[in-house]
Amino acid sequence: MFKLDKYLIYSDDSVEKSIKRLNEVNPNILFIINKSKKLLGSITDGDVRRFILKRKSLKNPSINAANLNPLFCKKLDVLDKKEYFQNIIIKKNKKAIPVLHKGKIVDIIFSRQNNLQSTPILIMAGGKGTRLMPFTADVPKPLVNINKKPIIEYLIEKIKNENFENVFISVNHLGSKIKNFFKNKKNFNINVNFIEEKKPLGTAGCLYLLKKKNKKKLNNYQCRCNNRSKDTKYVKLPY
Questions:
Q1: CA–CA distance from 139 to each of 136, 156, 183 (Å)?
Q2: Kind and range of the H or E run holding 169
Q3: Residue-range definition of the domain harbouring residue 128
Q4: Does 27 sit behind a cis peptide bond, omega within 30 degrees of 0 on the bond before it?
Q5: Rounded-to-integer distance, Cα 86 and Cα 94, Å
């Protein structure tokens, strides 16, 4: 169950504070309220980037970087129109929509249902990356930089944007470097568990280890992320 207060920030709180708060929530969106807790706007990581490009000070109040016309749903309509708003979220690529009662936020409609959020994602990161030599001589393939950012960080961003929060990562070759990278990044504020391959297990060999480690009665999925597309493919595993 999500905590509503985590997604709320006051209008006079700084943009700098909103950045810190955005890194603590999934999906990355905050709703800006006044002292009476009425909705004034919303702010996302995209809003912050656009604000920074204007060379504005991060000490400015968060309302200065906000979207002042966020889409919202009235509490009276939420039962009849929730499915409609969920479709709007997908079609318009929204992160979430607040539910209002007398102008105050009482609930949030998210882009994904809670049972989807808990579905585990597997990243297979145990390969040696021989086709990328010499770049992978001392660096595991998932940590090779593209535009000054490791490959695996693009995957994590995609996973977070799809509102998943439980990730398993299988490691073998230079696995300690991958684990240290996630430790330094504080696991990107999602649940990350590592599967240690004592020897290379091939493309899908780690799935057996995942079956042993994941005890929850949930469907397990392999997620293939195409960073050039909004589409994400899911393949249901046979166990």
A1: 5, 18, 16
A2: strand 166-171
A3: 115-236
A4: yes
A5: 9
Check whether residue 228 and residue 125 sit in a common domain. yes
Verify that 67 and 96 share a domain, yes or no: yes
Kindly state whether residues 88 and 121 are assigned to the same domain.
no
Tell me the two tokens of residue 11: 């209008």
- Identify the domain boundary among 57, 84, 111: 111
Q: Has this prediction a pTM greater than 0.70?
A: no
Pinpoint the alpha helices (H) of the chain: 15-22, 45-53, 78-91, 114-117, 151-161, 175-184, 206-213
Q: How many helices, marked H, and strands, marked E, lie in the chain?
A: 7, 13
Question: What is the tens place of the pLDDT at every residue in 29-54?
Answer: 999 999 988 999 999 989 999 999 99
Residues 72 and 126 reside in one and the same domain:
no
Q: Which of 79, 111, 143 delimits the end of a domain?
A: 111
CA dihedral 66, 67, 69, 71 (to 10 degrees): -120
In this structure, the answer to whether residues 12 and 102 fall within a common structural domain is: yes
Q: Tokens 């770049």 belong to which residue? A: 135
Q: Please tell me whether residues 227 and 133 are part of one structural domain.
A: yes
Share of the chain above pLDDT 70, in %: 78
Chain segment 94-123, per-residue pLDDT in tens: 888 899 999 999 999 886 554 456 678 888
Claim to verify: residue 23 and residue 120 sit in the same structural domain: no
195-202: long-range pairs with CB below 8 Å, 24+: 195/168, 195/169, 195/170, 195/171, 196/171, 196/172, 197/126, 197/170, 197/171, 197/172, 198/172, 199/172, 200/126, 200/127, 200/128, 200/172, 200/173, 201/126, 201/170, 201/172
